TrEMBL record:
SUPFAM superfamilies: P-loop containing nucleoside triphosphate hydrolases. Gene3D superfamilies: 1.10.1580.10, P-loop containing nucleotide triphosphate hydrolases. It is found in: Mitochondrion. GO terms for molecular function: GTP binding; GTPase activity. This is CP-type G domain-containing protein. Keywords: GTP-binding, Hydrolase, Mitochondrion, Nucleotide-binding, Transit peptide.
């Protein structure tokens, strides 16, 4: 990963990743107030569900909140497990076990998965349930990790257990970070009354290192406009290449890869007309087929460029030139008929969408630490 690290440092070195450290203000004002409000409520909560992104079990922790969280009954919910590599996921749950921290990987949209989390929560609350008339469970985490989606699932499961008079309240869920702006309570049980609190996603005012910032941006916890789609896409390509991921895509797309290899060998001049989508074919295809084809084309483009690359991925300049080549091939693969800078943004946006929706496969971007550290 040496090439990624130096590229990341060089490419983003001049960026204002610290609050007030540059033109980019990625720590919106509401987060400071929200963090204060969360800290205040944490003091009176009986249990906290800390939601993290399963693709970032450590990088999606809000370090500033950790001291307040570690003293509480806490369950770490690694959400979006459907987007995380299951073979590595179990190593992470084992890691948290070895740190003596309750942790469960979940998919907030799956009822059975959320039920397992609720069983763990009930177990941890058992002794207070018998003596307190009212209990408070807080759901906290960085933006866009699925806190509100989880609250809705918990609420739905709970209301199927006990009838509610009032109309079912729902937390707003959305694909961009910063959807929830206020703390809101949802009643999930009578006798004792149990409330879950949805909270706004909050980041630390100063991201400790650039790669953590890029990982958070890639997972969607930081607005794309803050870092820029192109930088995030470059980081994604750097990660994919240094992990040799595109080489594993060969068996998926053998035939198309051979066709492409032949096309590239013909060394056609770059022609904007080639990038126009084939309008005659499109209306007959379903959206699903269109996405499948797009994924195949993208995987093939990345496979062919990486397998024909004879530089050193540990060298920042070599890695950069490979990524440059991949941007060109991706533009063609995605049939984007625009020129230069505009096209790069469009390529980046499409690539990020494919990654974030799991179409490029499941990933975990953090590395499991060798020895257990206290989960502060
Ligand atoms: N694939 C997948 N998507 C999920 C899951 N949970 C939530 N999402 C999606 O992630 C996005 C963010 O979900 P929210 O519940 O709004 O996230 P949040 O943490 O409340 O975000 P903020 O309110 O901005 O802090 C939405 O598009 C959800 O549909 C999950 O387990 N898997
Ligand atoms: Mg929310």
């Amino acid at each position: 990963m040496g090439g990624v690290r130096s590229m990341v440092k060089k490419g983003l070195g001049e960026m204002g990743f610290n609050k007030g450290g540059g033109a980019i203000n990625w720590f919106p004002g509401h987060m400071a107030a929200a963090t204060r409000a969360i800290r205040h409520r944490l003091k009176v909560s009986d249990l906290v569900i800390e939601v993290r992104d399963a693709r970032l079990p450590l990088s999606s922790a809000n370090e500033d909140l950790q001291p307040s969280l570690s003293g509480k009954r806490r369950v770490i919910a690694l959400n979006k497990k459907d987007l995380a590599n299951p073979n590595i996921m179990h190593k992470w749950t084992h890691y948290f076990d070895s740190c003596k921290q309750d942790c469960i990987s979940i998919n907030a949209h799956s009822r059975s998965s959320v039920k397992k989390l609720l069983e763990l929560v009930e177990l941890k609350l058992r002794e207070v349930i018998s003596r307190e008339p009212t209990l408070l469970v807080m759901v906290v985490g960085v933006p866009n990790v699925g806190k509100s989606a989880l609250i809705n699932s918990i609420h739905q499961i709970a209301t199927s257990r006990f009838p509610v008079q009032e109309k079912m309240k729902r937390a707003t869920v959305g694909p961009l970070p910063g959807v929830t702006q206020d703390i809101a309570g949802f009643k999930i049980a009578h006798q004792p009354s149990i409330y879950v609190l949805d909270t706004p996603g909050v980041l630390v005012p100063s991201i400790p290192d650039i790669e953590t910032g890029l990982k958070l941006a890639l997972a969607g916890s930081v607005k794309d406009s803050v870092v820029g789609e192109e930088r995030i896409a470059q980081y994604l390509l750097a990660v994919l290449n240094t992990r040799s991921t595109p080489l594993h895509w060969r068996h998926l797309n053998n035939r198309r890869i051979e066709e492409l290899r032949n096309e590239y060998e013909d060394k056609h001049d770059y022609n904007l007309k080639d990038l126009l989508p084939n309008k005659r074919k499109l209306p007959n295809r379903s959206d699903v087929k269109y996405i499948e084809d797009l994924v195949t084309e993208v995987q093939c483009a990345l496979h062919v460029t990486l397998s024909e690359f004879n530089g050193n991925l540990e060298e920042e300049n070599d890695l950069e030139s490979l990524i440059e080549q991949q941007f060109e091939k991706l533009q063609k693969a995605m049939k984007i008929p625009h020129k230069a800078s505009e096209a790069r943004t469009m390529v980046s946006k499409k690539l990020l969408t494919l990654f974030r929706t799991g179409k490029l496969g499941p990933f975990i971007l953090d590395d499991v630490p060798h020895s257990p550290n206290p989960v502060s």
